[in-house]
Specification:
212 residues, alpha/beta, Rossmann fold, 5 helices
Length: 212
């Protein structure tokens, strides 16, 4: 598979790139600078691109089998840019006639109980709420699209660098937590989950939670 990876220079992005490359896929990694550290493979090409520009996305996506996104706002950028990115990516993929998209979303919109999302719980950190709300708004844009074969893949409540075990669980629309109520996944195993979904397409048109 020939995959365009948006946000390839991020902590999750370069792990996804390496996971896909280890599986024999070709990967074009997009970042604003055109530089991606931590990925060394003959089947990897790093390019510069603007994920808020549908024309740019269309040019980059043309000829690829699928697009994966690990996009996020920069440190000095409003979280609301996620909505702009989503709109631009959807339009760019339409123009490029690429219909498969796996988008790395947020856990804040996942259900944790009857009519309750994670972002609405008392323990959800206040400083994370603007990003979580913006991610939900971006998901709402994607959910309205019937043209793309999309999957909105969310990590657990806590995602950090760690070990690649190859093990994880998923739940449609729900936060994945262990028996003690802890919701966690390593970035390495999240990359496994994303690559699996790209290859297998088991959760098309689904907001899918991941975790242990």
């Amino acid at each position: 598979m020939d995959v365009l990876l948006l946000g390839a220079s991020g902590r999750i992005g370069h792990r996804v790139a390496n996971e896909l490359l280890d599986r024999g896929h070709d990967v074009t990694g997009v970042s604003r600078s055109g530089e991606v550290e931590g990925v060394e493979d003959a089947s990897f090409v790093a390019v510069a691109g603007d994920a808020t520009d549908p024309d740019d996305v269309a040019q980059l996506a043309a000829g690829h089998d699928a697009v994966a996104s690990t996009l996020g706002p920069g440190e000095d950028t409003s979280p609301d840019v996620l909505v702009n990115m989503m709109e631009a990516v959807i339009e760019g993929l339409r123009r490029a006639s690429v219909d498969r998209l796996v988008w790395t979303g947020g856990a804040g919109g996942l259900s944790v109980g009857p009519d309750t999302r994670l972002v609405e719980t008392d323990d959800f950190p206040d400083e994370w709420e603007p990003l979580a709300r913006a991610a939900i708004d971006a998901y709402d844009v994607l959910a309205d699209d019937d043209d793309l074969e999309w999957t909105y893949l969310a990590p657990a409540a806590l995602i950090e660098p760690g070990e690649r075990t190859g093990e994880y669980r998923t739940a449609a629309g729900e936060l994945v937590a262990d028996e003690d109520g802890e919701s966690y996944i390593s970035m390495e195993d999240f990359a496994v989950a994303l690559a699996d979904e790209l290859e297998e397409a088991n959760a098309v048109h689904t907001y899918l939670g991941t975790g242990y």
